[in-house]
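Late entry, evening session. Most of the bench is empty. Finally got around to the prediction I had been postponing all week. Sequence below, unchanged from the version circulated by S.P.
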Amino acid sequence: MRRPRQWLGEHPYAVGALAAWIVFVAGTACVRFPFMADDYVHLAAVARVEHVYRDWFSAWIVRIPVYSLGAWALFGSHVLERTFAPMYLVFALHVTSVALIARWLVVQLGPPDAAPRPAVVALAVATASLYPNTFEMLYWPTCMPLVPGAALMAAALYARLPLQIGLAALAFLSYETYYLPLLALLVAPTLVSSGLSARELALELWRRGRGFLAAGVVAVSVRIVEALREGGTYEHNLSISPAHVLLQFGLAVKQLLTVRFYGTPVTSALATAALLALLLAAGVVLWRRGNRRLVVLLALCVGSTAIYWLLAYSATRAVYGSQLMLAGVLVWLAVEVERVVRPAPRVIGLALACLASCFIAQSVSIWRIKDHNAAVLAERGAAFGRELDVCVSPCRITYGNLQAGLRRDWVLPREFWPAYLEWLQRRYAPDKRVTFVAASDVGPALTPSPPP
């Protein structure tokens, strides 16, 4: 049986990923998580339609077919109505992606004879994996099926050309957030190199990027075929207005480099300061030694959000691929400082521990908000359930402000109230005809479809 030190020495990336997963499980084991917004639409549809994939989740097959199948499997199985356990599988895929991307950067950008300290690598991977801005992907069931695309993107970095094309195409068919980060990761080793002539640079970029280009052609072709088969296209609002692009660019930088959660301050200022201070201090130290790589890598991280600049919405999940790249850059940065500067191991360990503590503190604040909102919704749902149980069909149920008591989160915006109420009706009184009537100061009556 191998000792822990042997595992650390031989598999530091896996040890760091496992450590982050254990921290995540320990921190969330007693936390309740609420359904959010679109979740209620999917849950109500699963209870309403007979052929749930054909009649509901196939709507996304033209744009993101891999997600379409994943969402069908997740919601159609009803597993979410019993447990949020899939969240732990999603986080496992997330930390695996971070570890693979980090290893790619360290191996590709570092001298072949440089062996980083395993403890530094493991602590850096664990810290980067706990970067808390990925909250939409981890805690929102509607977004959870997007995360397997991250593992596909990370695996594509290591695959030979034919397999790389297939893995990358599947990642692109999971979500658009993986296109440019994969390209940025593939060409990063070339762009940080020095001494290449223009011709050598062009040839090397082609060698590294041809798999990406082929995968892009495959993904676009699949989307065209699906659009023709389905008799239409998936509409997605875009804007090329300079003012809009500039605004979205600023938001992308903010969602990468500031630690946040739907506008709640809590510990985000401290975590943001820690992240920026680490990047700035390490960047200055490396710059003074003639190492400009961090600047190039951060520019690539920001540049990999370019699709987001054109989108007509500002969801954090749209920069998830770039957030994964940033996490990988954080690991590379710790290893590079250790290699170039050779500080005492405890200095790097202390810096990473401080950053990890700030990340965990921000996650704890998010978990508290989630737990509070889940408790409020559980109590409210139980109250509706008791009322639906005793009412005589056709029922008339009056409701007030469904957002009352909820802390800041994208849990139950008003446009999702009809789906929420329909889901409650189908859960507690599927055989009754129920009309939900809003209080006079809230809005119009909401009448879900009658049960089939």
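Two things to note before I forget:
Confidence is low (pLDDT under 50) at residues 441-452.
Strands lie at 395-399, 434-438.
Will write this up properly tomorrow.
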